Amino acid sequence: MKSTIRTIGALLLGMTFLGVPAETALAQSGGAFAERVQVNGRAVTNWEVSQRIAFMRLLGSGGGGGIEQQVVDMLIEDRLKLEAADRAGLRITEEELAAGKAEFASRAELTTEQFVQELRGAGVAEETFTDFVEAGLAWRALVRARFGPRAQITEAEIDRAMALSSRTGAARVLLSELVLRADTPEFAAQSKALAEQLLRQITTPAGFAAAAREYSVSSTRETGGRLDWLDLANLPPQIASQILALAPGQMAEPIEVPNAIILFQLRALEETTPKAAETLSVDYARFFVAPDSRASAQEIIARLDSCDDLYGVAKGLPEEQLQRQTLAVADLPQDIGIELAKLDEGETTILTRDASQSILMLCGRTPELGEGVDREAVRARLFNQRLSSYADSFLAELKADAIILSQ
Known about the structure:
It comes from Actibacterium naphthalenivorans. This protein is α+β, with helices and mostly antiparallel strands. The chain has 14 helices and eleven strands. 46% of the residues lie in helices and 20% in strands. The protein has a four-stranded antiparallel β-sheet, with helices on both faces. A four-stranded antiparallel β-sheet has the order 8-7-10-9, with helices on both faces.
């Protein structure tokens, strides 16, 4: 049963954690039930942290580092989600909670009682499972109530999306970008406010270009943020769905990526007969270099013709310095997906994120063979993508406004 639980952990959480002893969380002063952090006056205890770590370990999340801080962040977000739902007058009933727990357990082909028994065997209290499910249910209900009407999908948007996924229709777009710095909490707060201001004020391509020249930290600022034609299918679906909803001259909602907030304006959209089917997955590589060594990165790029050349560059270096992977377009981190969409096979760019700098290279794209598309399935996919975007932005607002005190 434990292997089944680990499987749903990988499917449901989409998160990576390094398995470390749960008692790490108890290494703080004050013992198991001392406060680890306060969120708007509500405590998160060491016990909750250690329990959530054990819960994640049972679900089989593996790889990556910093599990303790990631769990603390998750619990902070849970507090904010529940607090926001409470302010909106939303309550999860006992029946809804029981149904949510049963649904979660059923994905491991277990009853709630069997799932709880597995948890207890690993030292995880049922309360930890209950809190996890309750926060998720409350947040989903709040997001749907708050943003559901704004996230509705029109028939025209469905038509466009179906054209993109068919073998007889595709689209490409002309976009302009404005990239705002958000690599510190101070810059993130300033840029978020500026992005909202620009979204309200800019009404023309000329206005967007002027703002890009003044505020953007991207190299495209010199051209007013103008990008060349991009195949819409190469963009991350969350972004593509926003672009599909725009008319030329309109701007998408601000998109938050690591270290930056991005504004896009649609200049033109052209439906075409595709040369190839829609992209299913992307093969790409990242070669990490020192953050202050842009010149040496350019020297390395000058030696590259394909991703295979990176293996020669990385010879004798730590294995983690070169990463190559193939991911579905929908699973790409948004900032990486945006940059890869601008590249042709064998092209590179320099990516800065999370205090690291890397050479990002597109190795290839794997096309998807067209199949029949169900309109309601397309509507649901676009709706969920748009709703997810609203939810991410709303959670970022809650975190920015919260009083969070570490003990």
